[in-house]
Every structure is written in structure tokens, then in C-alpha cells.
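Structure ticket #2291
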Amino acid sequence: MKIAVDAMGGDYAPEMAVKGAVLAARDYNLNVLLVGDEDRVKEELKKNDGLNLPIDIHHASQVIEMGEEPYHMIRKKKRSSLRIAFELVKQNEAQALVSAGNSGAVVYGALFVLKRVKNISRPGIATLMPSLSGMVMVIDAGANTICKPQNLVQFALMGAVYFKHTFGLLDPRVGVLSNGEEETKGTELTRLANELLKKTSLNYVGYIEGKDVFSGKVDIVVCDGFVGNVLLKVSEGVAESIIANLRKEFEKSFFSRIGYLFAQKSFLNLKKRLDYSEYGGAPLLGVEKPVIICHGKSNDRAFMNAIRVANEFVQKDITGKLIEELKPHEYPTILKKPHSLLKKIFHHGGEKEKKGAEIEESEG
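Resolution: structure written out below.
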């Protein structure tokens, strides 16, 4: 098995991508295929003593930059590292893809080259974050800025399948993010999604507020990609602020520094739990091959963990589980009661939709 890494994606490419690949190959004995400028990638491999590791290089002469329009660039730049990586995965020369590049281009590339899982109208980015009960998944974290109620139901179904087969939690708790727990709160989107989700056999707990996201009340938070991406970025900012303020407090006086010596282990454990790099990347659920989207500022550990996550995704055949458990003939086991909108949940796709016309530009 081989994991394709877009070596030119991210703010610190190709240095961090290569370092992360070296760590993954060395520490986890994983086979990695680095896609990017061959000379630059090889130079980084030499710096990190990676030439004798199970790492191959596939040359790509172009790069899709962060600021470029994703929909057209994934089609136009056929020799870009991201587009070539997708083609390699499609041709089974690699079994999964990892990228910290333009996230919109990653989403469009997955749809354009790899295609959607049958019966899923839109894929969702499933981001893991720490919570008081361990971890919480937010889906969608940025792939779809505009959603319909049936999209949120599909996000919940995919998230539950992923959580069950990845973490062994058979009945994960699902909640819809809203501005209050009362059913009269929220928007038309959340109210309709709430009604639909109550009619599924998911362990649906109803609306949750922003303060409940990290409380351990739920395992899966469902929202549209705009809200999810804002939640993700705010959470990152709060975590960084907490760490920075704690450090300032410890440096204020001699006694504070003494206190830090006793609390150092706890402080470092907290910092590790709040560090996004420890979680690797976020899987894009709903496409036919494993795709892991990393933070644009990913360091070497983030890449290493993203490659590890991609490997686990393949090993546990999460895509196969999604296809199997979301088949139309599974409706009776998924749904408790009929509902007029439920017919729209599973999407078979028309010609226009196959061309990706309905897909919204991803954010982040």
C-alpha cells in the first residue's frame, strides 16, 4: 500500500511534507509517494536522510497556489502536484491522498477525478477536535458553504459510520449545531435537518449550542461548511490564546516559574491535546477514495499523522463501509418513519450534477 502526498501543498512546501513523509516511513514503516518538483523534493529527502526509506518521487511541474480559483485550476493545471496525485490514486498507483494545499482545489479534485460515493450528494470534511470525553467530530468543516437539509442528514450518517469503524463506538451521539437547544431556534436549514434526523435510527440528541461542542455531550457535530469552518478557526484561535496566556502567567514571577516546574507535565499534556498537528488531517467523507485534508500551516508532525490517518482509513476500508451501509436497500434499518424529504436524502445524480454543477466552492 502507498500513500500519495501532495508535496507542493501547504505554506511550508515541500520541506514539511517531505519531513512528515520521512517520519511516517521511519516510525510507522509506511510507503509514501511524494508528488512534486523532483529536484526540490529529492534535496529535502537528502537533508532528512530519507533516500533509503520506502519513499518514491513522482515529478510534477506545476503547483496550485493557495490564492488561485480552485474549480478552474484543478482542470487547467493538469501537471500540478495535486492533480497528478489524484490521478495516481484513481489509477490505484496509490491508495490514498494527503494534501495541505488549497482545500477548495482538494475538494473539487476529489469530485472531478475520483467522483462521489453513490447515493451521497455532497462530501463533507470531518475534523476531529479534543473534547472532555476524548474527541468530537465536526462535519462539514468547510467543503460546502451552502447546504440543504438532506446534506446535513448525509453528513450525520457518514460521520456515524466513520466514528463507529474508526474508534469502535457503535452508537455515537449526533447533534446539530444551533444557537439554542429549543427546537424553535436555528435556521430553516437546521430546523428541517432536525426533523429529518429525529426520524433516523441514529443516536440523535437534537440541537446543541456552541458551548456544548467540547463538553462531551455529543460525539458528532453536524453543520454546514461555512459554520463548521468558522467553528474550526475560532477553536484554533482560542487554543493558541490559552497556551500563550498560560505561558505569560508562568513567566510573570519567580514563584510562577517554580510552579511551572511542578505543572510542566500537565501543561505539556494540555498543549499536546490542543495541538491540531497531533490529529493529522481531516478525511473528506463521501468520495470514492480516501482523501485527507491537512491544515495549510501543517508541520512535519501534522503530515506524519495525516499519512498515518490515511493508512488507517485504507486498512479499515472506511470507503467500503460507507458504500455498504448507505445503500438504498438499507433504508428500513436507517429510517424509523417515512418523511416527504427523506426521498431526497439519497442522491442518484443527473447528468448536470455529475459535472459538479451543484457543488459550492469550498472555504478554508
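Closing remark: Residues 348-364 have pLDDT under 50 and may be disordered.
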